[in-house]
Amino acid sequence: MAVDLTGKVCLVTGASRGVGRGVALGLLEAGATVHITGRTARNGEHPEGLDRAGSLASVLDESSKYPGRCVAHRVDHAYDVETEAVVLRVLADEGRLDILVNSAWPGYERMEEDNRFTWVDPIWQQPMWRWDAMIGVGVRSSWCAIRVASEAMARQRSGLIVNISFWAAQKFMQNVVYGVSKAAMDKLAADVAHQMREFDVAAIALYPGLVRTEEVLKNAQYFDMSNSESPEFQGRAVAHLAADPALLQKSGRVFTSADLALEYGYADIDGYQPRPNTLETA
């Protein structure tokens, strides 16, 4: 079942690739105006010289297939001033902000270093950059964006804030810092929901399944891809949440993309209906 978000203004951080890219495309599919952020302006121009597919330009090119309007902003969310500025820019240009999706997440960079998958290394071999990337950028930039956007959403008495999270918030999933960061994203959504409820603004944490992002596909030999999801499937989840007239009843809670698909009656872009994970099966 398709939804229509024509007239809605969205901001998706970290949307040059991965889940953020998919969320942006899913919202464009629903007809929304979608502002996206990322550090990579064009393919092959990663600021740290990493070999990572995806860029703002590639999302802009792909956006032409959808009814929505896409606007790209080159932003490094390691810097609060840049995060704050892009939120204010969207508000100045559009006059409102209806949906904020916090997906900026450099913690997945360099999962493989020196031809070795270091994600599962013991604590004493884990590099400090992972903490800085996941907590110092991923969690901090989410809070920074919410802090600025919340005032406008409170004033307009509507809005949806989505933090991209995962089951690692609730169970150990091979990497300590990963779990800490995702638990923080869940708690951030829950407490923002509590404080913003009086303004009719909802906040939720969204758990994708195993998403066929560029980095996952590059390391596919380490994963069971049989129940994987497209990045765009995550965008359909956000779009259907935003269109739900009973959204506030969901505020403060955690949802999986696959469970929302069953509830709202939509499938992935290839027609596949992903099986929802649980705490036990994730």
Automatic annotation (TrEMBL):
It comes from the Bacteria. InterPro entries: NAD(P)-bd_dom_sf (IPR036291), SDR_fam (IPR002347). Pfam families: adh_short. PANTHER family: DEHYDROGENASE/REDUCTASE SDR FAMILY MEMBER 1, DEHYDROGENASE_REDUCTASE SDR FAMILY MEMBER 1. This is Short-chain dehydrogenase. It comes from Devosia insulae DS-56.
